[in-house]
Amino acid sequence: MSRPIAAKKRKTVEYTRWGYFFIAPFFIIYTVFALIPLISTFYNSFFETYRIGLSQVGPNFVGIQNFISVFTESKIYIYAWNTVLLWVLNFIPQIAVSLLLAVLFTSSSMNIKGQQFFKTVIYMPNLIMASAFSMLFFALFSDGGPVNSMIVNAGLVSEPIRFGSSVGWTRALICIMNFMMWFGNTTILLMAGIMGIDNSLFEAARIDGAGTGKVFFRITMPLLKPIFVFVFITSLIGGLQMFDVPQILTNGSGNPDRTSMTLIMFLNKHLASRNYGMAGAVSVLIFFVTGALSLVAYRVTMRGYRDSGATN
Amino acid sequence: MSQATSRTELISKTALTYILLVILSMLCIFPFVILIINSTRFHSEIQKGFSLAIGSAFGQNWTKLLSDKNIPIVRALLNSVFISTCASVLTVYFSSMTAYGIYMYKFKFRDVASNFIMIVMMVPTQVSTLGFIRLMQQMGLMNSFIPLIIPAIAAPVVFFFLLQYMRSILPFDIVEAARIDGSNEFYTFNRIVVPILSPAIAVQAIFAFVANWNNFFLPLLILNSKEKWTIPIIIAQLRSADYLKFDMGQVYMTICIAIVPLLIIYLLLSRFIISGVTMGSVKG
Fold first, then answer.
1. A290 touching chain B per CB within 8 A
2. A30 with B154: CB under 8 angstroms?
3. Is A225 found in the same domain as A98?
4. Residue A1, in any domain of the structure
5. Looking at the complex, does the CB of residue A276 fall below 8 Å from at least one CB of chain B?
6. Are residue A116 and residue A243 in the same domain, yes or no?
7. For chain A, what is the domain count?
8. Is B239 on the interface with A (CB under 8 A)?
9. Could you count the other beta carbons within 10 Å of the beta carbon of residue B243?
C-alpha cells in the first residue's frame, strides 16, 4: 500500500480505484458468510436431508416436496398466526403509548420536567439481554414466584395463577416483554420526528383556534407519517423474527399447546434436530415473506430519507 | 373559554402526564428491583414469598454460583466479553471503511455496490442460517468463535448509519488537503477520517457490542461444548434444566450477571446512547 501517488494528471483515476480496496472486505466477507449460505439454503430446500437416530438420510433431491410437507404435515399456518398475533398485540399498545408520550414530551405548554430521566428509564429494557429478561419473567411469574406471592398476599386472588399453563397469560407475558423492550425506542424515534416539524405550523393552528385533538390529527400525524411508517414496518420485520423471548419463556416448546411457537422458533427446531430439508423450506418461505415486506419498507424509508435530505 | 378553566385544564393534564410517566417508569424498573433483591436472598427466603427487604445472601449466592461446575459462568462471561468486543470492533472499523469507500470515491460500480448493501440490509440473518451452519461444518468451524466474530465485518445497518453520518459531517476538503500533503489513502482514513467519525463510531460500537452480547439464536446453534458457551446459552441451559431443583438465589444471581453489567454501562452512558437511537433512521 506504499505505492507513491501518481502524477497530477492521472490523480482522479488513481484515487477512484482506492474505493475498491475500501469496500472489498465487506463484499468478500458478505459473499462468503451470507450470500453463499443464502444460496445454499435455497439449494438445500429441494433436498431431503434429515437424521434418524445416528443415521443420516439423504441428501436426496425431492423437488418441492419439502414445501408441500411444510404446509401439509407441520402447523406452519398456526406458527405464522402466532407470530403475527404476538406482534400485533404488542405493537398496538406500543404505538399508542409511544405516540401519546411523544406528543406529551414535546408539548411546549406542558413543559415536562425530567425528560432525560424518563427517557433513560423507558429506553432501558431495550438494551437488556432478551433471553435473560425472559428468564427473569419466567422466574417472576412462576407458580411460586414473587408475582404470585404478591397477588396472593394482597388478596387479589385466592390461589396462585399458573401463568405458564394458560394460553392467554403466556401470550400476554410475551407481549408485555416486547412492549417494555420497544416502547421507549419508538417514543424516542417519534419524538425526534415531532421535533423535526416546523413549530410555526403548530402556532398557526393554535392561533386559528384548533384544539389539541385537531392539531394532532391534522398536523402532527400527517407530517409524522414517514417516520410512523418506518417504525411500523421495521417493527413488523423485527416481529416476524421474534425468537429469544418466547423461546426462553416456553423453553423452546411454544407451550401451552404450541400457541406461542413463532416461525423462527420452528426454524430453530428443525436446525437443532438437523432436519435440513424442512429447515431450508421454512427459511425460503420466511425469506419471501420478509422480502416482500422489506421491499415496501425500503421504498418508504428511502422516500422519507430523500424527502428529509431535500429539505435539509 | 376562560383563562381560569384552560389553566386548570393544563394543570390537570400535566399532572396526569406525570402519573402516566411514573407508572411506566415503575413498570420498567420494578422487575429489575425484584431481580436485584432476590439475588441477595437465600433460597429458603425466596421460596417463602416476596419481600422488598434486601437479604444477606449476596456473597453466598455469588460464591456458590462461581463454584458450580454445571454453570461455567465465569468462562461464559469471558467468552461473551471476548466475542462481543472483537465483533463490535470489526463491525465499526470495517463499516466505516466501507462507508468511506462509497462516500469518497466515484468508482464505476459505486451505485451498484451501495444499492446492493441497502437491499441486503433488509434480509434477516436467520434465513441464511441453514446454509451458514452447513458451511461452518464443512470448514470445520463448528464450536468455534470464528463464525460469531468474522462475519461481523459485513454489517449493512452500521454501514448505513455511518454513511449517513459521513454525509452530514465529513468535508471533502480535509481529505483533499491530506492528499496534497502526500498522505496515503489508508493513512488518511485511519488518522483523519476515523477520528472525525469517532462520536458515531463510539455509538455504533456500543450498539454492536450490545447486539453481540445479547445474541442468542446463532451461538445456540454453533457452540456446543460447555467451555465455549456464552451468557445467553447459560440462560437457556438454566431454563431447560429442572427448574425446581435449582437454588433460586443462584438463578437470580445468574440473571443478574447477564443483565447488570450492561445496565451499569447503559446508566453511565445513557445520554450518549439515547442520542444515538435516532442517528441515521430519522433526520430530526
1. yes
2. yes
3. yes
4. yes
5. yes
6. yes
7. 2
8. yes
9. 14
The residues facing A51 across adjacent strands are A56
pTM score: 0.89
Q: Is residue A56 part of a domain?
A: no
Residue ranges in chain A whose pLDDT is less than 50: 1-2, 5-10, 13, 309-312
Q: How many CB atoms lie within 10 A of CB B237?
A: 16
- Look at B282 and A227 and tell me if their CB atoms are within 8 Å: yes
Q: What is the CATH number for A257? A: 1.10.3720.10
ipTM: 0.90
Q: What is the mean pLDDT of residues B277-281?
A: 67
Q: Quick check: is A312 in a domain?
A: no
Shared domain check, A184 and A101 = yes
The answer on A242 and A127 residing in a single domain is: yes
Question: Taking the mean position of all CA atoms in its chain, how far away is CA A103?
Answer: 24
Q: Rounded to a whole number, what is the distance in Å from the CA of B50 to chain A's nearest CA? A: 5
Which of A23, A44, A135 is the closest to B255 by Cβ? Answer: A135
Assess whether A130 and A205 both reside in one domain: yes
Interhelix angle B73-104/B156-169, nearest 10 degrees: 50
Calculate how close chain A gets to B1, using CA atoms only, in Å. 11
pLDDT tens for residues B141-158?
999 999 999 999 999 999
Write out the residue range of the structural domain in which residue A213 sits: 75-272
Q: What is the DSSP string of B21-34?
A: HHHHHHHHHHHHHH
